[in-house]
Design brief:
Length: 110
């Protein structure tokens, strides 16, 4: 039997002291999650370095990602997406403090 439908923009609290992570789908090699940021960034000096590919799309809000290797800055607005290949060290440099930044992240494990 099919599961009931849900909405990616529901169940987001007014005040978000830390980034909000919600699991949407988990399978052996695929994990899909919603991430909500509101002024949250990666702590100074910290870089994400994942052992798997991650595809992300920004559904609402604005964000800036920086890649460690070449310090390339990528500014994202609603509708923008990108692939972060495994071991591509990156950080979230900025998210809008005025509005929720809603991400959909698809983690692809080999």
């Amino acid at each position: 039997m099919p599961s009931a439908s849900s909405n990616i923009f529901t169940d987001i609290p007014e005040h978000i002291p830390e980034e909000l992570f919600a699991s949407i789908l988990k399978r052996d090699n695929v994990y899909i999650e919603r991430i909500v940021s509101k002024g949250h960034i990666t702590p100074a000096g910290q870089w994400y370095d994942q052992a798997w590919d991650e595809w992300v799309i920004l559904l609402h809000g604005k964000a800036t990602i920086v890649y460690e290797q070449d310090q390339q800055i990528v500014q994202l607005t609603a509708g923008d997406y990108l692939l972060l290949p495994a071991h591509t060290r990156h950080r979230i440099e900025w998210t809008s403090p005025e509005t929720n930044t809603v991400w959909l992240a698809v983690h692809l494990k080999a």
